[in-house]
Design brief:
Oligomer: single chain
Number of helices: 10
Strand content: under 5%
Shape: elongated
Largest sheet: 2 strands, antiparallel
Number of strands: 2
Radius of gyration: 23 Å
Order of helices and strands: HHHHHHHEEHHH
Distance between the termini: 13 Å
Structural class: mainly alpha
């Protein structure tokens, strides 16, 4: 598949997965609301359960002839929401598998980076636009990772997060930052050092986003490294 075909396929799969995830989340939220407001005889069946167990319990519930109208109606609605949430979650997982297959074939170099999974890689994969993104600084600005000075008179001693740019790309950078802070030793050492220098968590994450944007730009500027 050519690069343009890969990009288009990823765009379609990302949109479909996002729709499935959002719809599944809505169904889960509605299910949780029904559990909270249900009669005590129903609520006790879900007490202490986490979300996956709650969905399984709701999907398996059956009507009881002794229940009143309120209880019976609540129980009828709950399995439908549970099945919908589970079906949509499965659909999102299938889209993610398809995204992973494309990324593994097209840009395995992206997947090899710490903290970069298939969704993050697919979000970043289109890469710099020729003629528009001409440098890693421009790419950082597009991703909303370029620092914005927080001036005090004529002195600039602080920078703030950039709230502009491509928010999906910025979210991908944020995901990488969180993953590396949790799992990457070098990043944890960096955070500890900058914290000792008086930097706040927000400032440290802004710096990490900027560094990661620079690294991603250099990778994306190179030719796709097909497996």
């Amino acid at each position: 598949m050519a690069g343009g075909g890969d990009r288009q396929a990823l765009s379609v799969l990302l949109a479909a997965r996002s729709s499935a995830v959002n719809a599944s989340t809505d169904a889960q939220r509605q299910l949780f609301s029904l559990v909270i407001t249900a009669p005590e005889s129903i609520r006790e069946r879900f007490r202490g359960q986490k979300l996956p167990a709650t969905i399984r319990t709701a999907a398996s519930m059956r009507l009881n002839a002794a229940w009143d109208v309120e209880t019976a109606t609540t129980v009828v609605a709950r399995p439908s929401l549970a099945r919908r949430a589970r079906t949509l979650a499965d659909e999102a997982a299938e889209h993610e598998k398809a995204i992973w297959v494309i990324m593994r074939s097209w840009r395995p170099d992206l997947l090899a980076q710490p903290g970069v999974g298939p969704i993050v890689a697919a979000t970043c994969a289109p890469g710099p636009t020729p003629g528009r993104i001409h440098s890693e600084a421009a790419f950082a600005m597009l991703a909303g990772a370029a620092p914005i000075p927080a001036n005090s008179g004529t002195v600039t001693t602080r920078h703030r997060l950039n709230r502009y740019g491509d928010r999906q790309l910025n979210r991908a950078l944020h995901t990488i930052v969180l993953s590396r802070i949790r799992y990457d030793d070098a990043t944890r050492h960096y955070v500890a050092r900058r914290t000792s220098e008086g930097k706040t968590n927000r400032e440290i994450k802004r710096c990490l986003k900027r560094y990661i944007a620079r690294d991603l730009y250099r990778i994306l500027e190179s030719a796709p490294a097909r497996a």
